[in-house]
Amino acid sequence: MFSLPYTKLPHVGLTIFSEMSQLALQYGAVNLGQGFPDYNMSEELIALVNKAMLDGANQYAHTNGYPLLREKLASKVADLYQSEIDADTQITITPGGTYAIYSALSSFLLPGDEVILFDPSYDSYVPNIELCQAKPILIQLEAPSYQIPWEKVREKLSPKTKAILINSPHNPTGSVLSENDMKELIDITRNTSIVVVSDEVYEHLIYDDYQHQSILRYPELIERGFACFSFGKTYNCTGWKLGYAIGGANLMREFRKVHQFNCFSCFTPTQVALAN
Fold first, then answer.
1. Element (H or E) spanning 102, and its range?
2. Which of 174, 240, 256, 265 is the most core-located residue (most Cβ within 10 A)?
3. In this structure, what are the phi and psi dihedrals at residue 37, rounded to the nearest 5 degrees?
4. Which residues form the signal peptide (predicted)?
């Protein structure tokens, strides 16, 4: 039997999420680890997808995403985060948030580069970095607050540091970044070539008096960052595998070089439905 003489991800097997989902199905248990709800998505959105298909939106969408959807997202950013984003040069529709994160990383990482990130974390981050032949530099988040220890971040900085990967609201702990956290991030990255990759797929799952601190609130971070989002998490349609990335125009130019040869285009009817 043929087998490869090597593996690019020697430490990766079945993820804990897949394992627990299988066990939950096997034993009929409530799965508190899954990233999707047990109730159906909006009937209005289902109807809009059907309408889009019946109206003929069944061919390739623009590689960068359905134009009206990108325009609506730019308006959303202006309303929520008071930032001007160019829909043509700074927004790309992707097949899910995880894809957006990996494409962002692979658009600029080179072998031997280092990426600072935080543990525990979403399970795709480390393999994504390793597939780019870069090195993950993990910093432990401590209970009960799971806040980022910025002094440790400063200690881990090196000439090889090419990115800092953040996630808020945080998966799996639920912690959220504050305005002070963002000021620390701005201070650390100022006058460097460090790229900030921000996983914000849970941007609307935030409660009490907390305010989501997107990097899109901060011009200094927009130009050196990628913010990655998921329509699936927002609209309870994870099976659609649709998300988007927003970033500085120079960074997005590199992102799209990767995107066009990995995906080319995302499912058109869902993009049209979400735009409407």
1. helix 97-106
2. 240
3. -85, 170
4. none
Segment 14-40, tens digit of pLDDT: 777 788 888 998 999 988 877 777 788
Q: Do the domain assignments include residue 109?
A: yes
**CA-based end-to-end distance of the chain:** 52
**47 falls within a domain:** yes
Residue 31 covered by a domain: no
What is the rounded CA–CA span in Å between residue 247 and residue 117?
19
What are the φ and ψ backbone dihedral angles of 65, each rounded to 5 degrees? 120, 155
- 30 belongs to a structural domain: no
Please name the residues in contact with 169: beta carbons below 8 A apart, sequence gap of 6 or more. Answer: 175, 176, 202, 203, 205, 206, 212
Contact 269, 57 (CB under 8 A): yes
Q: Which domain holds residue 175?
A: 43-275
Domain count, the chain: 1
Q: What is the DSSP letter of 179?
A: H
- Is the pLDDT at 192 greater than 80? The verdict is yes
